[in-house]
């Protein structure tokens, strides 16, 4: 039973990291999480240790861990790999798309737009995760999906920073809609290009924010 509980806690924390529910630098205290979930510290510690082994968390496993901070060099490296892997997964996912998955992606895009209209950051990030990972899952390549998810565990918390720019949200769903149009047209390469534009647009915005943060205070 403890193994099942550990797996449940791991999957819950993992989903929260993928959806950007934790912020860079945020501490995850074992006892606080155990109290919130009504369980003992042991399965929580084991779940956190698994995430630390994947590079999603840092710190002392016996006390508390935290979400890693992001810097420009690390993010550039992550973005470079994401463009290659997610572009491939988007192309293959579009090519293998079925009606049920397409409907789920359409619903996720609609939910993203509603979240943007309401300035609901967490709802947007949750549905954004569902859209991208749903598209990549459709590629039918478990190894490719695992590699992408391992990168998302590292960048998901940083996605919160997209909402620090007031006008940025006007384009945060544009490329998803273009991707859907390409899928409906049967153009897998155009679907890939839309996802790559999405990653590049958001990636450059986040790199700009990191550059501002690194400037010395006047």
UniProtKB/TrEMBL annotation:
Q: Which GO terms describe its molecular function?
A: DNA binding; DNA-binding transcription factor activity
The record's CDD domains line, in alphabetical order, gives: WHTH_GntR (cd07377)
Which keywords appear in this protein's UniProt record, sorted alphabetically?
DNA-binding, Transcription, Transcription regulation
The protein's matches in SMART domains, at most eight in alphabetical order, are given as:
FCD, HTH_GNTR
Per UniProt, residues of the HTH gntR-type domain are: 3-70
Pfam families attached to this UniProt entry: FCD, GntR
The answer to whether keyword Iron applies is no
UniProt-listed SUPFAM superfamilies: GntR ligand-binding domain-like, Winged helix' DNA-binding domain
Q: Which InterPro entries match?
A: GntR_C (IPR011711), TF_FadR/GntR_C (IPR008920), Tscrpt_reg_HTH_GntR (IPR000524), WH-like_DNA-bd_sf (IPR036388), WH_DNA-bd_sf (IPR036390)
Asked whether the UniProt record includes Hydrolase among its keywords, one would answer no
Record PANTHER family: HTH-TYPE TRANSCRIPTIONAL REGULATOR MCBR (PTHR43537:SF39), TRANSCRIPTIONAL REGULATOR, GNTR FAMILY (PTHR43537)
Q: Under what name is this protein listed?
A: Transcriptional regulator
